[in-house]
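quick one: magnesium ion bound model?
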Amino acid sequence: MRTGIATVCLSGTLKEKMQACAIAGFDGIEIFEQDLVTSALSPEAVRAMAADLGLGLDLYQPFRDFDSVPEELLKENLRRAGAKFELMSRLGMDTILVCSNVATAEIDDDGLRAEQLTRLAHLAGEHGVKVAYEALAWGKYVNDYEHAHRLVEMVDHPNLGTCLDSFHILSRDWDTAPIEKINAEKIFFVQVADAPKLSMDVLSWSRHYRVFPGEGQLELAKFMGHVVRAGYAGPVSLEVFNDVFRQSDVERTAVDAMRSLIWLEEQSAKWLDANDPGAAGASGTSASGRRRYPMELATLPKVAEPAGFNFAEVKADDTAGLEKLLGQLGFEFEGRHRTKDVQLWTMGHARVIINEQAPSHAEPAIAALGFDVDNPVIASARAQQLKAPVVPRKVQADEEVFQGIAAPDSTEIFLCQGSPDGTAAWTHEFGDGLATPSGTGAVIDHVNLAQPWQHFDEAVLFYTSALALEPAPFAEVPSPTGLVRSQVMQTTDRAVRLVLNLAPLIQQGAHAGYQEHIAFAVDDLVGLARDARDRGLEFLQIPANYYEDLAARFSLDPGFLATLKELNLLYDRDASGEFLHFYTATVGSVFFEMVERRGGYDGYGAPNAPVRHAVQYDHARRATDPRNATTKYATERSRP
Ligand code: MG
Ligand code: MG
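yep, here:
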């Protein structure tokens, strides 16, 4: 698959964008007109630079508002086109994107449109240029790719073909199967973009919220499957207008973009394998049994979803607060590592590493997560082919080697050898070497990671592609500082649940600090909470109003309600079961949550999340503002 990307996806100058695309490994780029117009580089210099970087200049775009106009305007449009064709010859480019008319279309007549496009094709032919005509989802008369293709057929000129853009097609819910009926020679270009499902006008949706494949909810593998079956073998190019990507680090975004195409290529091959009728064993098939198509699709090392969490690691300069919390919760201290300043704490199968090798004054933070996988080397090879940065970890000769990669928020992800009995060989490197699961069946239930705003979409793709987690539809949780966008990434059996939170900007500043947590599931939460209270645990204090609301929402046994209130427990219930949970106070940016899932309850107590955010916010404000250190809530509120 020939990979491409439009320069409009990235931040920076044209030169910076081109360099980043080359570093990320793209075969070619689309030059977005504005990037050239605003560039200090001459067309000849751009051409030379692309040649030096080994980048193809695959598409010049966009040329707007050509068709369906009165004759006077058409003449002007042809003059405009001629000037661009001449510019393209200086750039050494041969394909231009012409999108269906939005602003100046006046005459809705396919006969006239075909005639006007014929004149454009003739002019293009004289300059050796190919015109790829694209139906914009919001085109005034042409907004459907099949309509655009019908016009191309009516014109029947070698210099006019069509451009298929997944966003314009899928945002309108057009059926993608008829793509296969298009003569591949008439598909001049293919653009791909994903998007979250939003209900808003399609133009704003497209201009601001497109994301890279795998970061949204459009059925891109199916779209690509039909494109491949049509026989198309040209560039597959990202065209993603996104407010965040356009202000993020250019090289990093280019790598994220490349990862999305590598992933899409694999997903497209999978879709074809699953949907290719009778291909297996037929002549002209590849080793995988897939029918051969003009577009070759590369695949990746295959991994199953992880079997569970192997460990969670928190890191701090001063670890006393963490040790105290874990001890009060009932974790057992298993000992220190033989050679490193690292401690192991366990409860049942839940393992927490406290890493003391942090820079001085570093506050406690979640530093690493270990996942149980079938084969760490294969999983690591896959992640590296998806351009995940490798995390070096020093090991002694007789210690287990961890395959580590860095997640977009710089959390270190370790791919560990899972074992059916839930043990981990590396625990023998700690204490007296006898760390075995003990007592309750506690496990890590979920981990909640705060994502920097500029890396949120990248993180979704990272966990989807490298770790085979499935994104659930995202939710928005109200908090005192704004809405917190929350995205659950999980395995089918829910053995791994990762919650990515995009905190409002204010929470990412120094004032409140972002907060992350590790949640452990136990069998008897009430009993554990009582023991923890007796050991002096500082619970997150839940307001009395919450329990009144709980009593109104659910008909609960008064004794049970009193227990919840007494222990600061939160409660939720749905058709499949019940959920009890509580939170500890926060140390640094970390707190812990203990949960009990009853029946088939599959959520995270979402109705309780606003309560947690509000209490933590209040707590953090009072902790950081000296004027509030000893004052009551009412006094604090009366400040100007
Ligand atoms: Mg497009
Ligand atoms: Mg939670």
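Residues 508-512, 628-640 have pLDDT under 50 and may be disordered.
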